[in-house]
Fold each of these.
Amino acid sequence: MKKLILIKVLIFLQFCIYGQNNWPQIINTKSGASITIYQPHPEELNGNHLKVRSAISVKKNMNIDPVFGAIWADVMITVDRDSRTASLESVNITEVRFPEDLSPEESESLKELIEETAPTWDLVIYLDEIIATIEKDQELIRPDYDNSPPEIVYVDHESILVLIDGDPIYNKQKDLNIEIITNTPFLIFKDLDNNQFYLYGEKFWFSSASLFGEWKELSSLPKKIASIDKEIKKQENQNEKEVKVFKTTPKIIIKTNPAELISSNGPASFSNIQGTNLLYMDNSGDNVFMNIEDQYYYTVLSGRWYRSKKLDGTWEFIESDALPKDFSAIPEGSEKDNVLANVAGTVAAEEALLDAQIPQTAKVNRKEATCNVEYDGKPKFEQIKGTSLSFAVNTSATVIRDNKGFYAVENGVWFLAMILKVHGLWLQTDRKKLRKYLLITQPIM
């Protein structure tokens, strides 16, 4: 009965108040707790079977921060096609999710609070609005992604992959007489005094006569490099930066195109995964598999699967639901069960999908939060394919532009710089008026 009450609240809020745009809805309880229900979304309608989901937050009292979660439900409806409305026959809550850092007792307490305190509502469900919402969502979950594989480089020794975004862009530093490459996350520069290139990565210093030549570790640091190294070490200690620990001096691999690195400690070695026709590379920290049946190598990188007939050959993208069936048979608790979240149809994949729906929040002090964007020269923007947005290409920050202003994200916090055009001139918007609901950084001119 408690579950029925809760889902009636969700369905009512979605369809009975559809045109009022008064989300979120807050339910106050007799115990002093409050439940906030954010606009629910119908996910699927098959005949009279409806699936819905909604984000929620719960505050046990007014003096504590809300806990965010998500809820899913299956609903059976009876349809009146003349009026294009439906009534509820049965409701089943299929999932209630809260963050993993909550204890099982805290999660269960919040679930019980939700189910116990939601009041009863009279419901009117409008079929056209359900269908329109589902169709819109289906369009959004079928984006036109470019799944062209990156260049996948396999090596059997410890290496560092250094990515440069296109042709190197140099910025001269007159005080040190060096040219720094700005379109890479690594520190790479050319010393104009001796025409040598220097690279810093994972606490190692390397030098080379040419950018794409052979890089060798520096056994001792020249005076100029030592002064730069001192500043780097100081910043690393302040930021408590973690670096990868190598057993030997790593090799440097430089690429100017999208690329990924997979490596093994010596020649590739494989072990069998129990109950399957899969082998996994057991002397590698990467997820690399050999499928005995089709004799393909498989690897998963950033959630996407690729396969190749040779480790050092050409790799091709493969959808997760097209993987050999043995991938879904990898046993829980086995050496490579971590990839199950990326295998379509597995319990782990479903768990990962559900967990991704839980809103993640953090406190932000609007008075102290700042965002400073530095450009290499005048800001340059390029169009984002398939959108009306463009992004800045000559800054290490993430800056997006649309026809209303500029958006930047710093440490997970979004900032907005708005400009207005009056009589042909660009003017800064009123910061005081805007500060009440968003963070403002200086306009990008």
Amino acid sequence: MKFDFIYQRHSVRQFTGEQIPEETIKELIKAAVQAPSGKNQQNWHFVVVTDKSKIAEIARLVEAKNAELSTYLKDEAKIKAFRGTVGYHTVFKGAPVLILVYAGPYETIADMLLADGMMPASETEQYARANPGIQNIAAAMENLLLAAASSGYGTCWMTGPTYAAEEITRYVGFAKDGYHLAAMTPLGVPANDKITATPRKPVEDVMTILR
């Protein structure tokens, strides 16, 4: 059994300068929001940035935040390692489109238990581990990436740059109560057609069948 549309997806970090029609972007977002969503909350919002100067400024914000956060680290090796990630966290600056994916509120049983205060807070944590609100966002994100790949476009699922979420959100002017930046992806035509998917663990290592 083959699922070619899945194997076409891989992380792309270099793009041509070719622009993507707005109608195409809308179709990709439409595919994204067909994802399953707990309680049909659809607690997602996509901010699409197509202005190159704005994308460059977002990259600058990430660089500045990276430098700032590194001052709170003591170990030189950790500082060097963290500063070294900034190049990976700004690869989107070479893409014609940047999609910021926001996650909205999603009440769980853990929230309700914590609010009512009858169960110790330390015990309620176990009921929050599944984090369905973020699972909704991840499902939509994967739909987006698969739809883009099957249409010949490249993407790269990124969460690293979200340490600059506050600065980025303020800069783009996005304001929706309770929403926070959860992930982002560049979108564009890959600079080459080589698929560079990293090796995956054998299925036997990640699957348990109960007979």
Amino acid sequence: MNIYVNERKTEVKQGTSAFQLKETVKKNADVTVFNGFIIKQDYELKENDTVIFIKKGEIPKQEDLEAALVSRHTPFVHEKIKKITVGIAGLGGLGSNVALSLARIGIGKLVLVDFDVVEPSNLNRQQYFLKHLGMRKTEALDDVIKNCNPFVKIEKRDVFLDETNIEDTFKDVDIIVEAFDNAVSKSVLVNTVLSKMSDKKIISASGMAGYFSSNTIITKKIRDNFYLIGDGENEAKPGCGLMAPRVAIAANHEANAVLRIILGEE
């Protein structure tokens, strides 16, 4: 009889129960999830049942976490995702959210680039917490990512990006995500990539301030290697600040654009 144990297809004897299986698979598990529900009493297993055993606070093995990811987005998708390196320029409201979404889908490697530290005002939209105040954003985001997927390779660059170091910083990445909140830095990065790094794909964002309609934030393909996300209109200014909902929507447009490029859906 075949069932799924921690997302892996497993053959067990007819009549085996969930708690009997726990004794052989993970005796010290605190939680047993049977067909999506936490159970306190034992159940006999049937064909194609699913059982997940969890030890609270324990980091799963890499192969177990990969099995869980594959079960959600199919083997061929995961095999492509884990081979890709993405560079993220700026780790604020856009970049921190993009990085976390990519880590959750099992991206192979992230090159995290920022020169700034976490400030209290960042907490209104960025993927940081009170314990990260005063930390470099590269270090803080590394900590956040490790708490959701510790098997993503992380390279941290604490630098201010300009014309002199963009090419070297991103020479080994497959896709670049522009995530600055400074219009000049946005322009410098995009223009450098388009003029000097034509082998790289770059995804940029502009226009996600305020609390306007979510539906005006869209993804546009500008060139074969250049994508632009946002509503193209609502920049941050007095009376129209950057807030978590629309910033996160734009960030996840960027992350989804990365995913679509990886899977050839351009």
Amino acid sequence: MDVSSKYFSLLRQPGPNALKLFWSFILDIHRVGKLRELISFVVWEISHRLRFYQYGSQYVKFLPGPYLSLTDEENYSSEDAISTSFLTEDGLCFQPVVIDWKFCFQTPDGMLWGCRYSHLNGLYCSEDQSQSAVLVYEFTQPITSLFGSQRNVLFICSNGTIYRSENQGKSFTAVLQLSTPISYFLFNNGMTELPDHTLMIGEYGSIWHGKTWQNLAFLYYSFDGGITWTVSDFLQQQGVNKHIHLVKYCVRLNAVLLTDGDNKKQVWMNMLLTNFNTQAGRQRDGWRLINKYHYQTGGYTAMAETNEAVLFGSDYLGGTNFIVRTVDGHQFKKLVLPDPYRRSPVMNMVTRQAGAGHELWAASYSCLADDAKSLLMCTKDSGKTWTRVIEFDGAKNEVRLISSSRNPTSALYISVTTFGNQQSQSHRHQVYKLVQKPA
């Protein structure tokens, strides 16, 4: 049950049953463990409405310049509009590709691995930058996520099972069963590898049992390249009631970052890369809790880093969302996404290797209300300023970052989904690659 989407529009326009609705809302909030989050939502909303955030310095700063708005009726399904939408001083643009990737990752040899909207069960490989793709392996159920290790081992999640391949996808072995068939790890954020090749997975999924969520907040780690796995329930022991959003090694901080959801939305850091089953004690080995109180923000669904900083994206559907920045893992600066993007959670972040250094791309998404716009954006100065690229209405479109790589590369892929109308329920997906504009 999504409390935000259930009550958001009604609470914004109260009617004669407003008091009854408010009481039902409070009961639901208490039942799903979101009281802390509700209080934070109220604090952030008041701060925004009364302009407590000082002189705009606590808001994400967008550079002036044109950007594509798919909210315009003539543009929201136009492939031509997207293909000419982002022309920077570097001469970049989006080019449609023929492979309908749902998500993909690039290996150091330039090959792309992924699954397709048109064939979710199939693992595909492309050697020619998405001009063509070869079916490598077919699973009995849809692929829900995938990951490639530094030792060129492929990991696929399907039907709640983690499969492993050492031979470029010719064969797979089931190595880990997650707690439910609908469980998986979030692509680009939910599985990671440490410098010593330790692998880690954070379980994600949402199962409502009428009065409570099924707890899926399990952390898994492997010291032998993913052949055998150890499960940790330390988050559940800390009172986390739902799942794990992010587990990711950070090169700049030489630490693993971990975020949980849904009732507490905390941020954890393991700085010594040891004791993955316990909270850090006096010796600092284990997981150190970063945010003591919910209003400090946490539970991030996305993280990416550049040579200068580490950035996080918040997960507050219907509330106030933030881009959070740190350079040392101790001081965190949070910037509010301004309206009309404020209520859209930042779902993913990707670092791209550009000619002048690192670019960081972020995608937000919300479908709660027409005036809560979503955005694809990028920054060239590690989050100090941002460029709007594609603005869209989440009720009509979804723009997703769908590519990943072990280290930043120049490749960047996005997918644009156009939702079907009442006459046609089918969705249309088009994938684009960021390329140099032809002379």
